[in-house]
Amino acid sequence: MSSIDALLNNNKNPDHAMLEQALSRFASHPLFDQPDSFYCDSPYLRPVRPQDLREFNFDSVLALAELKQPSHLMAQRLLLNIYEQDLIFLPQQKKLHLEEFNAFYDEGLRGAGAAIRPMLERHVFGWLDSEVSVSGNWDVDTFKGYADEVLDRVARTPSALLDCIGNSRNPANAARFFLIQCAGDFLSEASAMARNVLGNFGPAQSELFKILIDEYGYGVAQKKHSVIFESLLAECGLNPAVHYYWQFYTATSLALINYFHYVSANHRHFFRYLGALFYTEASLALVTRAQAQAMRIAFGDTVDTLYFDEHAHIDVHHGKMAFEQLIRPVVLRYGNQVLPDIIRGFEEFRLLQDVADAELFAHVAWHDELSQWRPGPPPALPAGARSHPFHECRDDLSVTHVHGATELFAVDKGTLRLVCSPFTELNLSAGQHVVIPQGLLHGSVITSDHCSYTVTSLE
Amino acid sequence: MKITTLPLDSFNSLAVGARRYFLLQNGDKPVIAPSECPHRGGPLNLGRRKACGAKLVCPWHDNAYPTQSIERGALPAIRRCAEISIVTGNEDIRVWTELLPINQGQGACEDAA
């Protein structure tokens, strides 16, 4: 039963009905509803496709193998909107629309988000409980030995990102798509970390604060990591406004941002946060050199790779600080009882990073394939294939989304533009088709007065 | 220190130097548990479960041990999807598969009968 069906049919469980109401209220808010462009000109406009709510059941826990399902993308979009209501965003280039500002931070909307947050977190992160577990007799040095081995393996493994971008048919656009995936996080870098520096937890608190002030540039705007990243985006021909490319974040890129908010917004997960922080800081020190190299392959040797170079340097310190000044003293002070959660956070973020990398590479491979697209005969349909016809008018825009199965997308009448990334678009007319693989982002906009198209499952 | 990563379905017993361990299925959290009973060294890996899996019973003297206390002597391990990484000293490691009644029919509770 879908979430909305549950609402309509629910006359037994008032708590559940309230939850469904909160979900509908939050997701259908005008800020998150239908936009008129694929690009978000305001930091408060973050479309989530509320019309799809009826199809999803967020009460369930997705399995690792189900992360390509459309409910994953929608739940991650919703969660980032909820978490980021705790952060301050003001437009840097455009005019401030005060009514949008007030609406985004509205108390009622925040209340609805707070009500649905645990359900969404369980839906998208519950699978980690069954895919990662820590057992046995650990101490802090055993963990250090394990972490050193993992990080050494990261250091020794050739960069898959470098391969992906270097071997792409269009390395510059592949690199830009990678930067877009980073932008959701890097343009408000370390915001989740800031959730953890308040309160009182002794000397470790001050150590975490030191990492935070590095991230935030010691109060000097030009040194702030997010500002350095804005410069890189602009140099690579991208718009540096916060969430301008909202519709092109993959679900698992969103998961990387949301995981840090998830384990930081609820301080019960503080020790998981410490483990995840250690993994990300220590591994970034190792992978950012290859990321800088990927930028040079894509944009030439003159591209300013300061953002990645800064991390290749400072994250050596941050990785060491996260372990020696944070984790080790915390374990010594509070005992080995806190270690399982620390190790779990380390391993969970590592797994999430691997899953996000795989999804990024799959998108770049598909974009490459589409760049060679030519009209051709449609593939054979499986017996009993289910088709859904759509009839739309000029300028109707379908917000980017994914399908849970590989589908044949065929235009029957009129014309439309299929948009798979800011750099990968196909203009399709009557009689033309394209196969859209399971779990890959795409949207469309109608370019004739009327257009009919059919989507048919190939599975 | 040595990290050994193995597919979970590739073994259920191992020896680290002279010490033997077995893979104790514990829901989503597999444990690399010592095979030697702390009482008289009986084969805990050949024991049975009690209290709906919360305790292991040594086949020699019927001593029952909570899984939690067994885990305190277990090797440090992390399961990630279908693999498990085990942290040991630098001793040689041997792994093999044998019939382990303790991991059969986990759903059945001896006490419920």
TrEMBL record, chain A:
It holds the Pfam family Haem_oxygenas_2. SUPFAM superfamilies: Heme oxygenase-like (SSF48613), RmlC-like cupins (SSF51182). This is Iron-containing redox enzyme family protein. It comes from Chitiniphilus eburneus. The lineage of its organism: Bacteria, Pseudomonadati, Pseudomonadota, Betaproteobacteria, Neisseriales.
From TrEMBL, chain B:
Pfam families: Rieske (PF00355). It comes from the Bacteria. GO terms for molecular function: 2 iron, 2 sulfur cluster binding; metal ion binding. The keyword Kinase does not apply. Keywords: 2Fe-2S, Iron, Iron-sulfur, Metal-binding. The keyword 4Fe-4S does not apply. Residues 1-95 form the Rieske domain. This is Rieske domain-containing protein. It comes from Chitiniphilus eburneus.
